[in-house]
Amino acid sequence: MQRTLSEKAYNEASKYIPGGVNSPVRALLSVGEAPLFVSKADGVNFTDVDGNVFTDFCLSWGVFILGHNHKTVNKAVKAAIDNGTSYGIPTLLETQLARLLVESVPSLEKVRFVSSGTEAVMSAVRVARGFTGRNIIVKFDGCYHGHADHLLVSAGSGVATLSGSSSSGIPVDFTKHTLSLPYNDFEAVKIVFEKYGNDIAAVILEPVAANMGVIVPEKQFLSGLREITKQYGSLLIFDEVITGFRLALGGAQQRFGITPDLSAFGKIIGGGFPAAAFGGRAEIMDMLSPNGPVYQAGTLSGNPIAMTAGIETIQLLSQPGFYSRLETKSETFIAELKEIIKGKDIVLNHIGSMFTLFFSDHEIRNFNDVKNSDTERFARFFRALIRENIYFSPSAYEASFISEAHTEVQLKQVLQTIKKELEKI
Ligand code: HOZ
């Protein structure tokens, strides 16, 4: 496979952009590969600048549940552009998308739009602190909630590949109210609540972890968190930036039947454009300025192009049968993949259309398990797939995704390739 133009593009980008990329995982360093530069994408495929075509299971990190370049979404966006692209003044589109979110997600009574998942989570935490008048935030090791200072503690995603899983440049004072505990460990949560319960503003987590690869919460974990936060007057925040509109129209909270106080959304709700949202009970959300004393703002928040793409996407996802079709297709793929990896010291964690292969002979239920897995073997696997024109999410600490656009025939071909390549690594 010729990759000379990507290599050239990387060298050129590195002159002007740190590491040549605008988000670290894209540099592919943890999988020992040179980054790809993309020229276009359609359906489940993207084409790099050298003209190589890849079957995509990263899908802009889960954004494209409908596949890239969806005709209906694009048509609406093209029409919206002709009316101007940002006003900094309210539009009807914001209310329309807000209504769709509130109608789709069980816990939402009010939402506010921002432009990225980082902003959504950061703002949800601020509202939680404003509402409770408390400081402490409990999070879980390996969950990634964007790059706000106080949440970059034992974080997953690209941070997981830094030594210590935290970023430099953050004063200790900024993280002193953040406690990070092992995922799926409710006993640890109980101990922390016994000690600090009345000072805990919120517990925040990815209801299915997807930034240390996919880790599904154990049965009593989410319900335990719901009960204990209620008992102590703390809020429960679900970071559904990845799981929202992915695991069901109502996200992980609908799938598990647990109602958080606040939730954050991103990725899918922008239909490929920068839109994210946070929301929850009206009495909490009304703490936000101008109704209340918690400040939060943004020039491009709710911008008409992102709102249009979001509306079109959610309407398509709301059509009867969408999620059951995606679920069935994913189940078939996962079942066959399970057969392929049998006896190979590989663990397949999955739920709905999200999955991660961990190279380990142990169950993977928390960040430590992921760190102890064979990430070198994952890297070899990733590189082998790339040579076969298949693009999985490029780190052992990420989730891969199936979309509506993957056909059964394509998935079968991918499985054959995986089978063949696993024999060699
Ligand atoms: N935080 C994203 C992975 N979970 C990476 C985003 C990107 O590199 O585009």
Summarize the structure.
The chain is of the alpha/beta class. It folds into two domains: 4-69 and 321-422, Aspartate Aminotransferase, domain 1 (Alpha-Beta Complex), CATH 3.90.1150.10; 71-317, Aspartate Aminotransferase, domain 2.
What does the average pLDDT come to? Answer: 97
Biggest beta-sheet profile = 7 strands, mixed
Give the strand content. Answer: 5-15%
> Mind telling me the C-alpha Rg?
21 Å
Briefly note the structural class of the backbone: alpha/beta
Please report the total strand number as a whole number: 14
Span between N and C termini?
Answer: 20 Å
The CATH architecture of the largest domain can be given as 3-Layer(aba) Sandwich
Q: What oligomeric arrangement do these chains adopt?
A: single chain
Q: Specify the number of helices.
A: 15
What proportion of the residues is helical, as a percent range? 25-40%
Distinct compounds present: (4S)-4,5-diaminopentanoic acid
What global shape is seen? globular
Any low-confidence stretches, pLDDT <50, length ≥5? none
Sequence of strands across the biggest β-sheet:
4-10-9-8-7-5-6
What is the CATH first-level class name of the largest domain?
A: Alpha Beta
Give me the secondary-structure topology.
Layout: H1 4-16, E1 38-42, E2 45-48, E3 53-56, H2 59-62, H3 71-81, H4 92-104, E4 110-114, H5 117-132, E5 136-140, H6 172-175, E6 178-181, H7 186-196, E7 200-205, H8 219-232, E8 235-239, H9 251-256, E9 262-265, E10 276-280, H10 282-285, H11 304-317, H12 322-341, E11 347-351, E12 354-358, H13 367-371, H14 375-387, E13 390-391, E14 400-401, H15 408-422
Helix pairs in contact: 3-11, 4-11, 7-8, 12-15
Bound molecules: (4S)-4,5-diaminopentanoic acid (HOZ).
